[in-house]
Amino acid sequence: MDSLVKRQVLGSAALLAVLAVVALILSPARLIHEAMHLSEHPVYMAGLIVFLYLVRPLFAWPTMPLSAFVGFVLGIGYGIPVALMGALVTCLIPYRFAQRAGEQGGMFGRLGESGRRIIEVTGETRGVLAARLSPVPADPVSYGAGFADVSTRAFVVGTFVGEIPWVVAEVAAGASMRSLTLTGVSIEALPHLLVLLGAMAVLVLAGPTYRHFSGRPDSS
Question: What is the pTM of this model?
């Protein structure tokens, strides 16, 4: 193991350890619960929403509680576009970080090579879209796209479109609640949503995957 890979492995392990400790101490649900009193102060609440989306990648929080919180505060009409933009911005942060890290080579460079081989089969936009539709957490998709050096345009389009059904469901769940608990948000239809969107992700990749393994040229 060369020195660069060694530093990357040790740095990644230290970062994961810190994130694990922070996740045990500080959760988005707890912050949201404590900040509910700001609902009477729109300017402060708007600042809090922006702050939460910006710091979310630093603590590896899921996006679901934030979308539900936005739905609870703003309702469905305003909540969906705000949560969509928040999801896009919060995913761009780890994507850009991974892009820069991938340029160093070493372990990150190898991850990028693996990702690029997959993207060559699926296409950039289609690959990101399928990953977003699938039940895979947001950050692994963002880091993977960054390491694979997916173009910004493909990442933005795939992320925005792929997050729409998730954000709509999460905002609607938040808007329907009268209170948020520290245990997070529950959606009764979540199992059905997971199956439906997982099936959609498979369908998005079905065409290029079939052409790849059958040896037929891509018609797109």
Answer: 0.74
